[in-house]
Amino acid sequence: MDPIAYQKRDAAAIQGQIVSVRGNVVDLEFPESLPPIHALIRSGEDGGVCIETTVHVNQRQVRGIALNATAGLYRGQPVWTDGKPLMAPVGEALLGRMFNVFGQPIDGEPAPVGLGYRSVHQAPIELARRVTSQEVFFTGIKAIDLLVPLERGGKAGLFRRCRCGQDRGDHRTDP
What we know:
This protein is mainly beta. The chain is 3% helix and 27% strand.
């Protein structure tokens, strides 16, 4: 299933409207039936704004977190969902490639074909099947694999360095 296919509204979609927008927190109303928790909801032009359901507020409203900018959303704007969660691509064709959170390539190359998709909220591997030996986890990103190899199953974070004011020479030092 292609994540881009979520952008098209179909007749089977659960439809509702925006009640309020507070930053990335969006309250939505669905008069007939509520989408499940973790459902991906689309709104905006061509379904460009993605909202993930986090809480059922009451029998008609859900609260969600927008996964991209909420600029242009307004009260009463239509929303729709097919009730499926955010899906991430999986497969060998991903090695060495860069993708955004929606599974779309951001490295300038065409999208690989023949990929499988899995929910980002699927259950973890059961403890009995986990590997307890140390092995290197290859990300497919040369700078990470060579300079800072990650341990499979370990905890690691990738952060971009902020050079706030350092390039302009306006940082101050105490005497």
